What does this fold into?
Amino acid sequence: MKTNPLQIASPNLNGRCEWIIETIKLECLNKFIVFGKKHLDYLTDEFTSHNNTKRSHRERDNLPPIREEPGEVATISIDQIEVKKYDGGLIKSFERKVA
It folds into this structure.
């Protein structure tokens, strides 16, 4: 794969990268005190993993970007729901408990 270098001082050419970097900074890194590269790597890995597999996106009709559209979901009771926390409890996800 060949890359094409961008012109100097042209952030509009790289809009998607700028958007995800800004999202990581605003929604994740601004809420933590980072204690080194290892901690920074952990936070960004956890956030990007959640962003790409669990978080809903408006462009996909509030579906995560990697998963397919879910089928019909039956109504469940509150005791069948499990709360999962990501990025030190900053992000919460609600999922059905495993039987």
In short: The first strand starts at residue 81 and ends at 86. The two ends are 45 Å apart (CA to CA). DSSP finds two helices and two strands in the chain.
